Amino acid sequence: MHYTKKYINFINGRYASEGIRITAGIITPSLVMNMFDKLPAGLIMSFGALCVSVADTPGPARHRINGMLATSVLVTILSILTHYTAVNALLLGILLTLAGFVFSMLTVYGVRSSAVGIAALLMIVLSLQSPPHGKDIWIHAGYTLAGGTWYMLYSLALYRLRPYKFIQQVLGDYIQDVAVYLRSRGALYANAPDYDKINESLMQQQISAEAHQNLLSDLLFNTRKIVKESTHTGRVLVRIYLDVAELFESVMTTYQDYE
């Protein structure tokens, strides 16, 4: 029964649901276009959706929209530039050098900006597999933009249908991290504990819990759906988060001479 509960929790958890959601968003264009005997066009749309999905990182809806929109436009432009420069090794080398430097530097602006840079570099690599010529370049770019736009609308539609689902999953992970941290702190009261090993474990668990805490802060207090509308679910989530955060902070800042 214990293992069955773990499997159910994994299926209902954050990572499994995110994987299913992203996979469905990527392969849907190919499946739909295949029904009209246009599988190559569907694959191009799926490539565009794949790149935009990289930038679909957790966060407030406004930040997600900006990130996915910027990625969709950027990968379309890079697709055109890569196809035109692919015929000349010198121009292609210049494009790769500039793109590699610029998009790698985006990592200094945070996780979302880093994801946008990775998506841009991924599109360059995908565009070099079988570059088209002439007007086909613009047709290819149009399908890429359509795929990226599809994924953005798909992701936002799911968010509107279940705006609290992801917050509930992250909150569950946060509560579990705090529980593990408390259990590890309790090991300091055992007979002859290994203080160095326990303190190292506590540091790792604290980092994980604080990462979930920061993400929850953005989701709860920067999401318009919760801040602007006083719904029962929103109030309950905020109350649980504040109670758990207060418990975690009080335990984390309490120190005893355990030896």
Number of strands: 0
Main β sheet profile: none
Q: What oligomeric assembly is this protein in?
A: single chain
Unreliable segments of 5+ consecutive residues: none
Helix tally? 11
The H-and-E topology, N to C, reads as HHHHHHHHHHH
Report mean pLDDT, rounded to a whole number: 85
Q: Evaluate the radius of gyration.
A: 23 Å
Strand content: under 5%
What class, by secondary structure content?
Answer: mainly alpha
In one word, what is the shape?
Answer: elongated
Description:
The chain is mainly alpha-helical. It has helices at residues 2-12, 14-35, 39-54, 61-85, 89-105, 111-127, 136-161, 165-186, 195-222, 224-227, 232-252. Helix 2 (14-35) crosses helix 7, helix 4 (61-85) runs antiparallel to helix 7 and helix 9 (195-222) packs antiparallel against helix 11. 26% of the residues are buried.
Which SSEs are present, and which pair or pack?
Elements lengths: L1 H11 L1 H22 L3 H16 L6 H25 L3 H17 L5 H17 L8 H26 L3 H22 L8 H28 L1 H4 L4 H21 L7
Helix pairs in contact: 2-3, 2-7, 3-4, 3-6, 3-7, 4-6, 4-7, 5-6, 8-9, 8-11, 9-11
What's this, in brief?
This protein is mostly helical.
Based on the model shown, name its key terms.
mainly alpha; elongated; single chain; about 260 residues; about 0% strand
